[in-house]
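Table S5 (text form). Sequence records supplied for joint modeling of the two-component complex.
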Amino acid sequence: MAKETGVVSWKDLALGCTLTEPGTAAQLKTGDWRSMRPVTNYELCNKCGQCYIFCPDMVYSRTAEGYYEANYYYCKGCGICARECPKDAIQMVEEEN
Amino acid sequence: MGKRVGMEVSIAAAEVVGLCDVDVIAAYPITPQTHIVEHLSELVAEGHLDAEFVPVESEHSAMSTCVGAAAAGARTFTSTSSQGYALMAEICYIASSLRLPIVMAVANRALSAPINIWNDHADMMMSRDTGWIQTVAENGQEVVDLLLHAYRVAEDPRVLLPVIVNLDGFTLSHMIEPIWLPDKEEVDRYLPPYKPKLRLDPRNPMTFGPVGMPEVYTEAKKAQDEAMNGALPVIIEAWGEFEKQFGRAYRPVETYKTDGAEILFLTMGSISETAMTAVDKMRAEGKKVGLVRLRLWRPFPAKELVDVLKRAKAVAVVDRAMAFSTRSGPLCVEVKAALYDHGVSPYVQNFIAGLGGRDVTVEDFEAMAAKTGDGLSKGLPMAYEIVNVRE
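The corresponding structure-token record, covering 488 residues in total, follows.
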């Protein structure tokens, strides 16, 4: 998973550490140092999208039913979504390992 | 065919940069470099040179402009000295790390304080580890030749590193010398057009200078170190091509009357010519003294240097900058390290001379040779001294 983590040999780095294609940050796993994860209670959720708007890492995406779902590959567990949710539908739950 | 001219060295430097079809020049005036970029601004203003001349507000901006322009694929030039160089330093590291083949002339000058506009090598040593290739000129002809060589080396796809040509402030920059100036056809024959490997282009977006996390920074620096090491053979090859075309030879380490020498001086820059006169005089008196001149400061040609120095009983290293508290100047520190690495241990005497524009004379070199010979014959501890300092 070298590409995901940026862990490559010095011989494989592009000249001057340049990123030779756009959008490569999407490949970078930023969710592996999270200590708390956001969990949405869809019973309380009113689909307002505040979590989607405030998330600094664009973790949330809209589902077919109109709810918002977190992608834990990117989520750093900052808790902004939980703080901003007007319905208190998002709880921060401790990661087990 | 080129022509032989009597010309101020700074003007000749600007002329040859102009002949190299430079696209972007960004510069801020500072003594003693000013005449170089002043003349380039004239060449652009008068329509002799089709380039963008960006009169920036600081040296920091000058190098930033060159970085941006070079990343977009332009051939760039700037020039600086001393305090301006210090201000520029932050971006100098970025230019080399991004592997941008910028060429810069540095008219070497002392660093403040006290404020001093005259020549020594404090600014060259300050920028020692910026990751730029650095050559050193001894006279005006060499400034012209090394600038032309600089573009060829910097832009070589096997190198892609920025290059500094060091010339002593005033003692070189402001002298009027006889110089053989190449013509456009000769320059074009030696210097192919710049073809960037990677460049900023909206049709093919790339990110230059992204963040490097702890997982990647070490590898980035290793790649840069290897690039610098790999530049050495290309630098030598480009000098070989230069010799074939122009008939003037350059080497990373150059020698003068070293055959049979027991004491070898090691110098950099324009005082080497004074040293040659001193060696001539001492040789005529039967003294076994020779001279080694370091042409290439970065990459440091350790092996080439040791191969020459190992033949002598004693080496007198002349530094033109201080490395406070180390009891060796910056050049001597590296020379001693190179000797140690190669298991060679001649008697090494270090002299700090010519600080802040103080003259270094033939008599000074004679005194240095006498002191080194004395230390060697009496088995005195290897010493470090500031030449002619008033107690």
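Note: Chain B touches chain A through 23 residues (CB under 8 Å).
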